[in-house]
Amino acid sequence: MGDSSASYIHMVQHLIEKCLIFHMSKEECMEALSKHADIDPVITSTVWNELEKENKEFFEGYNTQTQTKGDRLSEAQIDELIQKMISDSTSKDHQGSSKDPADSSKDPDT
Protein backbone atom coordinates (compact mmCIF):
# COMPACT_ATOMS: atom_id res chain seq x y z
CA MET A 1 0.00 0.00 0.00
CA GLY A 2 1.43 3.41 -0.94
CA ASP A 3 2.06 6.20 1.53
CA SER A 4 -0.86 8.24 0.21
CA SER A 5 -3.25 5.27 0.53
CA ALA A 6 -2.07 4.54 4.06
CA SER A 7 -2.39 8.22 4.93
CA TYR A 8 -5.94 8.30 3.53
CA ILE A 9 -6.97 5.21 5.49
CA HIS A 10 -5.41 6.70 8.64
CA MET A 11 -7.40 9.92 8.08
CA VAL A 12 -10.64 7.91 7.67
CA GLN A 13 -9.83 6.00 10.87
CA HIS A 14 -9.25 9.29 12.70
CA LEU A 15 -12.59 10.66 11.46
CA ILE A 16 -14.37 7.45 12.50
CA GLU A 17 -12.84 7.78 15.97
CA LYS A 18 -14.30 11.30 16.15
CA CYS A 19 -17.70 9.89 15.12
CA LEU A 20 -17.39 7.40 17.99
CA ILE A 21 -16.82 10.30 20.39
CA PHE A 22 -20.10 11.80 19.12
CA HIS A 23 -21.87 8.44 19.80
CA MET A 24 -22.72 8.02 16.13
CA SER A 25 -23.79 4.68 14.68
CA LYS A 26 -21.88 3.15 11.80
CA GLU A 27 -24.59 4.29 9.38
CA GLU A 28 -24.59 7.85 10.76
CA CYS A 29 -20.81 7.97 10.48
CA MET A 30 -20.88 6.69 6.91
CA GLU A 31 -23.47 9.32 5.98
CA ALA A 32 -21.65 12.16 7.76
CA LEU A 33 -18.25 11.37 6.23
CA SER A 34 -19.81 10.98 2.79
CA LYS A 35 -21.64 14.30 3.10
CA HIS A 36 -18.92 16.38 4.75
CA ALA A 37 -15.61 14.77 3.75
CA ASP A 38 -16.57 13.20 0.41
CA ILE A 39 -15.48 9.78 1.67
CA ASP A 40 -17.10 6.83 -0.08
CA PRO A 41 -19.37 5.02 2.42
CA VAL A 42 -17.79 1.71 1.34
CA ILE A 43 -14.39 2.99 2.54
CA THR A 44 -15.86 4.15 5.86
CA SER A 45 -17.66 0.83 6.30
CA THR A 46 -14.51 -1.17 5.52
CA VAL A 47 -12.35 0.80 7.95
CA TRP A 48 -15.11 0.63 10.61
CA ASN A 49 -15.33 -3.16 10.17
CA GLU A 50 -11.56 -3.50 10.63
CA LEU A 51 -11.72 -1.39 13.78
CA GLU A 52 -14.51 -3.64 15.06
CA LYS A 53 -12.38 -6.74 14.42
CA GLU A 54 -9.41 -5.25 16.26
CA ASN A 55 -11.50 -3.91 19.17
CA LYS A 56 -14.32 -6.43 19.68
CA GLU A 57 -14.93 -5.72 23.37
CA PHE A 58 -15.05 -1.96 22.86
CA PHE A 59 -17.56 -2.19 20.01
CA GLU A 60 -19.78 -4.68 21.85
CA GLY A 61 -20.18 -2.14 24.64
CA TYR A 62 -20.31 0.80 22.25
CA ASN A 63 -23.06 -0.71 20.11
CA THR A 64 -25.15 -1.49 23.19
CA GLN A 65 -24.62 2.00 24.61
CA THR A 66 -25.32 3.73 21.28
CA GLN A 67 -28.62 1.90 20.84
CA THR A 68 -29.87 2.95 24.28
CA LYS A 69 -28.29 6.40 24.51
CA GLY A 70 -30.90 9.09 25.12
CA ASP A 71 -28.63 12.15 25.15
CA ARG A 72 -27.37 11.94 21.58
CA LEU A 73 -26.51 15.04 19.61
CA SER A 74 -28.93 16.47 17.08
CA GLU A 75 -28.17 16.14 13.39
CA ALA A 76 -27.34 19.86 13.20
CA GLN A 77 -24.89 19.52 16.10
CA ILE A 78 -23.27 16.50 14.47
CA ASP A 79 -23.00 18.36 11.14
CA GLU A 80 -21.31 21.30 12.86
CA LEU A 81 -18.87 19.09 14.77
CA ILE A 82 -17.99 17.05 11.67
CA GLN A 83 -17.31 20.23 9.66
CA LYS A 84 -15.01 21.53 12.41
CA MET A 85 -13.30 18.17 12.74
CA ILE A 86 -12.64 17.97 9.00
CA SER A 87 -11.35 21.53 8.77
CA ASP A 88 -9.07 20.88 11.77
CA SER A 89 -7.83 17.66 10.19
CA THR A 90 -7.06 19.26 6.82
CA SER A 91 -5.32 22.26 8.38
CA LYS A 92 -3.03 19.90 10.35
CA ASP A 93 -2.25 17.97 7.16
CA HIS A 94 -1.17 21.18 5.43
CA GLN A 95 1.07 22.25 8.31
CA GLY A 96 3.23 19.16 8.06
CA SER A 97 5.34 18.04 10.95
CA SER A 98 6.39 21.10 12.85
CA LYS A 99 8.76 20.80 15.74
CA ASP A 100 8.15 22.23 19.14
CA PRO A 101 10.09 25.54 19.31
CA ALA A 102 11.25 24.61 22.80
CA ASP A 103 12.98 21.54 21.39
CA SER A 104 14.92 23.54 18.79
CA SER A 105 16.35 25.85 21.43
CA LYS A 106 18.00 22.97 23.27
CA ASP A 107 21.62 22.32 22.45
CA PRO A 108 22.10 18.57 21.91
CA ASP A 109 25.70 18.84 23.12
CA THR A 110 24.75 20.08 26.61
From TrEMBL:
Spell out the Basic and acidic residues composition-biased ranges.
90-110
Q: Which Pfam families match?
A: A_thal_3526
Q: Which InterPro entries match?
A: CHP01589_pln
Question: Where is region (Disordered) located?
Answer: 84-110
Taxonomically, which superkingdom?
A: Eukaryota
Q: Which PANTHER family match?
A: OS02G0137100 PROTEIN, OS06G0705300 PROTEIN
Q: What is this protein called?
A: Angiotensin-converting enzyme 2
